[in-house]
Amino acid sequence: MYSPTPDDWRDANRARWDERVPIHVASDFYDLDAFRSGRDALRAFELAEVGDVTGRTLLHLQCHIGMDTLSWARHGARQVVGLDFSEPAVETARSLADELGLGPDRAAFVTADVYDAPSAVPDSAYDIVYTGLGALNWLPDIDRWAETAASLVAPGGFLYLAEFHPLTDTMDAKTGSVVTDDYFSRDAWVDETPGTYADFDAPTVHNRSVEWQHPVGRVVTALAAAGLRIEFLHEHDSSLFQRFDALERHADGHYRYPAGRPRIPLMYSIKASRPAEPGR
After folding, report:
1. What residue stretches are annotated with the Methyltransferase domain (predicted)?
2. Which of 111, 17, 115, 35 is nearest to 73 (CA)?
């Protein structure tokens, strides 16, 4: 249900994520054995849009257990830093880095709230600030997020965001063809669904979550207001999970509407850059 932002939103969300870390580690969804053996956790469109990261520094905000973060290191980033507010998630990410032979000089992880990132991460600015899918919905203040993220982009660097499209949160869950909720709502969404997207049947105790919907226009405007130049906004017709019953799984593992049926955007991505300093 929608409601004003409850005072315990951060504690409730952290307890939920802390509990789900071991479930995710053991799940087929994340398939850590395959990841350890070399499977890439990043999506093809992210790799194409971000481009070559060789020799660059990268900060991953809200990194969860670090698979995407470490995948960027595998693609040649000189140093990656992952930040998450869940200590169990960060501990898992550090263990994965050790298993992959990536020491702290190549892959470091810190526990902190994303809004506190500037004082928590080891460097003041990064060539690339990256935020992966399923992150913004956990944050109440998109303007503060944009200001925080933008402050960590080095001159000549950029922020890259890949996210689930908020339009999908307004559609009926079965067909994805009827609008049932307000796209522009600023209220918090409080849910108490047990389990997790990685294992819907997993027994869980900390089920209360507090989330927010951020229309794409607000996200773009917040980044521009924070001093970044919008390079592109791309909308994608696929999702990483079966958001609606009508979606079909394709060979690339993504879910799409059946051929011939009208589509809506299911994910989107943004690249926003900071101009290089004069003379460089």
Report:
1. 59-157
2. 35
Domain contains 279: no
CA dist., res. 4 & res. 7, Å (int) = 9
Q: HSE-up of 119 (CA within 13 Å, CB side)?
A: 4
Nearest to 136 by CA among 71, 214, 195: 214
* Structural domain range at position 217: 2-273
Number of independent structural domains in the chain: 1
What distance in Å separates the CA atoms of residue 58 and residue 158, rounded to the nearest whole number? Answer: 10
In a domain, 240, yes or no: yes
Q: What is the CATH number of the domain that holds 42?
A: 3.40.50.150
State the 10-residue block means of pLDDT for the chain, 280 residues long.
79 98 96 97 97 98 98 98 98 98 96 98 98 96 98 98 96 87 93 93 96 97 98 96 91 92 95 85
pTM over 0.85: yes
Residue owning tokens 């070559």? 52
* CB distance 60 to 68 below 8 Å: yes
